[in-house]
Amino acid sequence: MITDADLDALLAGRHADPFSRLGLHADDGGRLWVRALLPGAATVALLDTASGKRLVELAQRRPGFFEAQVPRRKHRFDYRLAVIWEGAGEGGEGIYADPYAFYPQLADDELKAFAEGRNFRPWLSLGAHVVQHGDVRGVRFAVWAPNARRVSVVGSFNNWDGRRHPMRLRHQAGVWEIFVPHAAEGDLYKFEIVNGHGALLPLKADPYARRTQLRPETASIVAPLPEPTPLPRQRERANRREAAISVYEVHPASWRRGVSGDFPTWDELAEHLPAYAADMGFTHLQLMPITEHPFDGSWGYQTLGMYAPSARFGPPEGFARFVKACHEQGLGLLLDWVPAHFPTDAHGLAEFDGTRLYEYADPREGFHRDWNTLIYNFGRTEVREFLVGSALYWIERWGVDGLRVDAVASMLYRDYSRPEGQWIPNIRGGRENLEAISMLREMNEHVGEIAGAITVAEESTSFPGVSAPTYTGGLGFHYKWNMGWMNDTLRYMAEDPINRRWHHDKMTFGLIYAFSENFVLPISHDEVVHGKGSMLAKMPGDDWQKFANLRAYYGFMWGHPGKKLLFMGQEFAQRQEWNHAESLPWGLLEDDRHAGVQRLVRDLNKLYREHSALHRLDCEAGGFEWISAHDAEHAIFAWVRRDGTGRMVVVVCNMTPVPREGYSLGVPDGVTAWKEALNTDSAYYGGSNMGNGVAAAGLPVQAQPAHGRRLSITINLPPLATLFFVPI
């Protein structure tokens, strides 16, 4: 018989092992008893599934608790519960399978692998999965909460009552699980957790949820597991370091608002965004974080749904169509991925089971002072699996090309943004976060096993080998953002041209280390927010000079070694800094100056893709050679780009408003004539149209020394302009 103490614990939602008491059990005399905890039920009867016969009416021992001895049965059998609910609750009446009649759902070997850190696809086990047992369809729920005293799944299928579906603890892994018959796709759910001290915690969303409610609501939603989606074969070649990679970074909520004036749906984005980016000549789209997050103003960087596309853009299946639309346009798709930290919202990961489970316990390790967020415990086996699993999930199950990993520098150093005495050294006494370094290497190694998939690090320090293979001691990223190049060159461009002679090295210094990593040159959202102004606003001078400076800078960037990244709106010289709550000011394109910048970016991308000398050796020293690096007095820069097979492009920049006619430019041997391939001062782009024509004969090479070379060409060098020359 069940004891009063058992009964009290069950009714209070505090029983540690409900599976040992509820369901079908034999007593000491071998007699079978069935017991059910169904708060809100008026009557419960036991039915034989095979015959459909009503075997016995269960007695209500306490309100909500029913039991009966099973007549004439000595062995376990398949049964159902016929329930009549009080009032009109849950449809009045129904016939249900008993969740406590089902055996453990997860195999011992998969739980052992999870506990030992060998399961890097934990989303196959944990979370909510629609499954079928015989003729019973329902949802298997599983959650990691090793320090909880009791965990129940609550949701729209049980009136959010934690007494209805307390879960089974699988002790070897700290995982709680249950199969809930008749729960279905689309049901809302959370986990109700009693901590080790007996206190009831705020309801927790599922860390492995694949779909969530739209904020401010916070429930998880039962959703199907996406089918494996391999990358299209051509993407492998398009993501290589010798490929032309030009990335258009987008905040999907504000690129263009939806028809309703609010968030666009994935299908609305799919209809317009990929085609626009492809027409502009970009090779890749990069979306700022689309993982679920509670606060719009975080732009997605404070995420709590590492496995869920944000509900802001509609159901997850719409995201699958968006990925397909990108690939149909020949675009790669990169997602911003945030494994560095997470917000403290009560429904999230913070003190998930009443202990600091996902975060470091000591705030000197586990609290991010800059962002008021919590830092993942990178040394904990199950947390590493959670993070690495998320990376693999987006690539394997959604078919995205790769991940741009946010805030890597904050992960690498224990003293990141911390004063003396407010951080804990590693076990060797150093400042590096060895656990985070190990996790990042592990993640990159697993991603590297997927043909064509890539990772890109936003890393702002000189940490060595960020994009070097792990087998050489590197972190294993494929690419790294060149934050130093961005900061230096933008500081130079902000100077009045008359003062640029004193800052010449800011444009040349990046070439000292340009090939130490596989670099991406990023003009990202971070450069056009928080009072920094738009790219156009950063440029000095009157309106004409601002546009000319910006065009010249974009030319410098596209001619410089390194892959390219430009944030949305900057391709048409947005005047105001970016506002995440508003659509881009597309009306500016009615002004030919803005439309001219857009045409320039399109043509720069076209030139970059068509000329292998501008991209094939982006990450190799052999792809670059200075022609003029020291003409600070005239603010002129000139260089050669090579592809290693004899193809060349010459790039020359004039960063003053002084035009220079008859300028002698030293050129490499082996070419008899050069032609102007692109001129940022063209009237087509809004410039003064000073240039070098498009005559078929081009510009003949002269045996006249210049810039330390024996050959030269004579060019007209426009004010505040970048020119590209190719051999004829």
TrEMBL record:
The active site is at 406 (nucleophile), 458 (proton donor). SUPFAM superfamilies: (Trans)glycosidases (SSF51445), E set domains (SSF81296), Glycosyl hydrolase domain (SSF51011). It comes from the Bacteria. It is an enzyme of class 2 (transferase). Gene3D superfamilies: Glycosidases, Golgi alpha-mannosidase II, Immunoglobulins. Keywords: Carbohydrate metabolism, Glycogen biosynthesis, Glycogen metabolism, Glycosyltransferase, Transferase. Its EC number is 2.4.1.18. Residues 249-634 form the Glycosyl hydrolase family 13 catalytic domain. Pathway: Glycan biosynthesis; glycogen biosynthesis. The keyword Ubl conjugation does not apply. InterPro entries: A-amylase/branching_C, Branching_enzy, GH, GH13_cat_dom, GlgB, GlgB_N, GlgB_N_E_set_prok, Glyco_hydro_13_N. It catalyses: Transfers a segment of a (1->4)-alpha-D-glucan chain to a primary hydroxy group in a similar glucan chain. HAMAP family: GlgB. Catalyzes the formation of the alpha-1,6-glucosidic linkages in glycogen by scission of a 1,4-alpha-linked oligosaccharide from growing alpha-1,4-glucan chains and the subsequent attachment of the oligosaccharide to the alpha-1,6 position. PANTHER family: 1,4-ALPHA-GLUCAN-BRANCHING ENZYME (PTHR43651:SF3). This is 1,4-alpha-glucan branching enzyme GlgB. It comes from Pelomonas aquatica.
